[in-house]
């Protein structure tokens, strides 16, 4: 029982160190800035995937609309950057200088009221967390208090994703429409486009990612994490153990939304634009696929899943643009049918036991007194 | 109707309880009263509405009309988790334990502390929790299996675990739906022993078909038939009631 009070068990610690080494050392050393920036883009989806591990893997709540929160976070960030890029001197050729270019093109002559507070970076950072968080709170309360769950909930989140896309595309003057918000330049005067800025942003993102991993791991280890698992299996038993199941579902859904939003905000910073094509149904489902491929029960698996699927997407869609979507669909079906726990499941079932056996063999060779210790040490990993 | 009685004496007062599913009245104008420390067994043929009565009391099913008073609180207006917090525990017919969690974790979740979102985030597995979990685990014959995942337990052990989960809640009214169904003979004997120990100091409402078991534990028996009370009283009285013999015991 003492074992679970440790923050990482042995195999998780290996996973943590491996990921940290790859993201902090190997990739930055190995890749040029262009490719590193691509990795930064892939990693923005890892935030979403970590949220989905909590919400879907642990809580059993499948949301097919995480793009909504990714988008809300991304748009909040993009609005701030766009305002900074639309200073009066930058936009003096417009008929109304000082407002974003797409507003000018759509005959809007003054900055809309809801854009005003995005002049402040503090407000923007708060909005990145609170806007998606509150939106998830509203959807979650409306759904879970009425006991809407499972497939019905998934379908409704799809609908929300579709609605938000339509809204963004339709309200061109306020949102930039189908093109999104492009030409984002500086953050508080610091140019985000040159190579050295991209490298700094990459590291900022990785640090944030590890912060989110830490939060997710913390939640997983508290009683709340166990209640999520319990809820997924026997919702009624949790209810009749005195818990308000709806509140726990709302919490998990809100956490997933906030993680997704942080990813979205980092996307706007790293990629330099935000558009409705990252909000709708298709990207939302892709985010679920990343999580499923990585392993929906594994926080680290989710990160690897996002990296690998996106890497495959980039390289395959460059060579076989037509085939890629079939490949992605096939991958999802294969994972669901053959490896329900994704890559991390394969690792745990096939690779980990072999490593353990190898280690045990090597350790059992020296003196006898050693062996008991090593077995006792190895036990917690199970 | 027992209007002359003073309702405060009773732990549970069910009055004129009716529930209809699309016009079919599964429970029809049902009234009964459970006293403190009473062990009441509900028997009756299949479809008599026994499980529905438990569902109504614990809030799983909402009553169409009527009232359920528990210690002066109207349960029909409360949510399930509030009913649990008021002191009503419910065991389901099929064992419902959390199979992906260990025996310890199963019991810990039922420990009545940190039941809000924030409370469960800050919940500490302190000495009091551990002591209580171990104490209950010993009672339910699972002391040496605390670290076993619940999916590896036998059917009978799962039933015990669920009883243990109720025990750790320490409810004033314990509702058990066929606690010995599907158990082996030896498990049955152990369960009877377990139940006899845990029903002290609380009221218990049991649904059971095993007549010998009923005779062993019941203070009072209520016979349900088609959502209504057919007969009520001591086992002796009920057994000799011609109506009961005709619809239920005669088979």
Shape field of chain B: globular
List the chains of the largest interface with their residue counts.
A-B, 26 and 38 residues
Number of helices of chain B: 10
β-strand amount of chain B: 25-35%
Description:
The complex is a heterodimer of chains A (382) and B (251). Chain A is 72% helix and 1% strand. Chain A has helices spanning 10-30, 33-58, 66-85, 101-105, 121-144, 150-170, 172-175, 195-221, 223-233, 235-239, 245-271, 281-294, 299-319, 324-338, 342-364, 368-378, and strands at 186-187, 190-191. In chain A, strands 1-2 form a two-stranded antiparallel sheet. The longest helix of chain A is centred in the middle third of the chain and has 27 residues, at 195-221. With 251 residues, chain B is α/β, with parallel strands linked by helices. In chain B, the strands form 2 sheets. Chain B has a 6-stranded mixed sheet, sandwiched between helices. The longest helix of chain B has 15 residues, at 155-169. Chain A binds chain B through residues 1, 5, 219, 222-224, 226-227, 229-230, 232-234, 236-245, 247-248, 251, and chain B through 58, 60, 79-81, 84-85, 89-90, 92, 96-101, 104-106, 108-110, 112, 114-117, 120-123, 125, 130, 146-147, 162, 165, 169.
List the helices and strands and how they pair.
The complex is a heterodimer of chains A (about 375) and B (about 250).
Chain A: H1 10-30, H2 33-58, H3 66-85, H4 101-105, H5 121-144, H6 150-170, H7 172-175, E1 186-187, E2 190-191, H8 195-221, H9 223-233, H10 235-239, H11 245-271, H12 281-294, H13 299-319, H14 324-338, H15 342-364, H16 368-378
Antiparallel strand pairs in A: 1-2
Helix pairs in contact in A: 1-8, 2-8, 2-9, 2-11, 2-12, 2-13, 3-5, 3-11, 5-11, 8-11, 9-11, 12-13, 12-14, 12-15, 15-16
Chain B: E1 10-21, E2 24-35, E3 39-43, H1 50-58, E4 65-70, E5 73-74, H2 80-86, E6 88-91, H3 103-110, H4 117-121, H5 127-139, H6 155-169, E7 173-177, H7 185-198, E8 203-207, H8 211-217, E9 220-225, E10 228-233, H9 235-239, H10 242-249
Parallel strand pairs in B: 3-8, 3-9, 6-7, 7-8
Antiparallel strand pairs in B: 1-2, 1-4, 4-5, 9-10
């Amino acid at each position: 029982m003492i074992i679970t009070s440790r923050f990482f068990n042995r195999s998780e610690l290996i996973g943590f160190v491996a990921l940290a080494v790859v993201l902090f050392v190997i990739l930055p050393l190995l890749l040029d800035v262009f490719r590193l920036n691509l990795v930064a883009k892939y990693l923005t989806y890892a935030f979403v995937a970590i949220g989905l591990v909590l919400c879907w893997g642990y809580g059993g709540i499948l949301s097919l609309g995480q793009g909504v929160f990714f988008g809300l976070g991304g748009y909040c960030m993009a609005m701030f950057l766009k305002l900074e890029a639309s200073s009066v001197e930058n936009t003096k050729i417009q008929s109304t200088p000082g407002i974003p270019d797409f507003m000018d093109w759509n005959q809007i002559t003054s900055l809309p009221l809801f854009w005003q507070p995005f002049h402040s970076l503090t407000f923007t950072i708060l909005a990145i967390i609170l806007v998606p968080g509150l939106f998830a709170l509203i959807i979650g309360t409306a759904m879970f208090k009425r006991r809407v769950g499972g497939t019905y909930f998934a379908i409704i989140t799809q609908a929300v994703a579709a609605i938000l896309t339509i809204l963004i595309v339709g309200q061109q003057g306020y949102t930039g429409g189908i093109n999104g918000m492009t030409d984002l330049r500086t953050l508080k005067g610091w140019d985000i486009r040159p190579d050295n800025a991209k490298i700094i942003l990459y590291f900022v993102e990785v640090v944030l990612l590890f912060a989110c991993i830490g939060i997710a791991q913390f939640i997983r280890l508290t009683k709340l994490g166990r209640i999520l698992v319990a809820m997924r299996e026997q919702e009624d038993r949790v209810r009749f153990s005195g818990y308000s199941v709806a509140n726990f579902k709302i919490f998990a859904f809100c956490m997933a939304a906030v993680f997704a939003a942080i990813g979205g905000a980092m996307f706007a910073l790293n990629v330099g634009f935000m558009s409705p094509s990252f909000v709708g149904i298709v990207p939302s489902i892709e985010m679920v696929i990343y999580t499923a491929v990585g392993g929906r029960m594994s926080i680290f698996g989710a990160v690897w899943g996002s990296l690998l699927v996106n890497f495959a997407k980039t390289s395959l869609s460059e060579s076989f643009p037509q085939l890629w979507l079939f490949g992605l669909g096939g991958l999802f079906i294969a994972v669901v049918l053959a490896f329900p726990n994704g890559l991390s499941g394969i690792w745990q079932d096939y690779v980990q036991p072999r490593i353990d056996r190898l280690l045990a063999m090597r350790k059992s060779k020296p003196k006898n007194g050693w062996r008991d210790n090593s077995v006792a040490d190895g036990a917690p990993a199970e | 109707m027992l209007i002359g009685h003073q309702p405060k004496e009773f732990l549970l007062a069910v009055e004129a309880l009716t529930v209809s599913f699309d016009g079919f009245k599964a429970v029809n104008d049902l009234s009964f009263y459970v006293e403190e420390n009473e062990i009441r067994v509900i028997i009756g043929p299949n479809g008599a509405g026994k499980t529905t009565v438990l569902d109504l009391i614990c809030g799983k099913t909402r009553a169409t009309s009527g009232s359920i008073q528990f210690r002066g609180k109207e349960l029909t207006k409360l949510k399930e988790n509030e009913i649990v917090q008021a002191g009503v525990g419910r065991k389901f017919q099929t064992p419902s334990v959390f199979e992906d969690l260990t025996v310890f974790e199963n019991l810990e979740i039922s420990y009545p502390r940190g039941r809000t979102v924030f409370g469960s985030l800050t919940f500490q597995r302190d000495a009091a929790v551990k002591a209580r979990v171990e104490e209950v685990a010993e009672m339910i014959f699972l002391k040496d299996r605390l670290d076993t995942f619940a999916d590896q337990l036998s059917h009978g052990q799962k039933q015990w675990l669920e009883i243990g989960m109720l025990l750790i809640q320490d409810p004033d009214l314990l509702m058990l739906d066929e606690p010995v169904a599907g158990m082996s003979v030896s498990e049955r004997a152990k369960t009877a022993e377990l139940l006899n120990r845990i029903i002290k100091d609380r009221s218990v409402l049991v649904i059971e078909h095993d007549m010998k078991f009923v005779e062993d534990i019941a203070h009072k028996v209520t016979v349900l038939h088609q959502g209504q009370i057919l007969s009520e009283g001591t086992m002796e009285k009920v057994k000799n009631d011609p109506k009961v013999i005709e619809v239920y015991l005669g088979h």
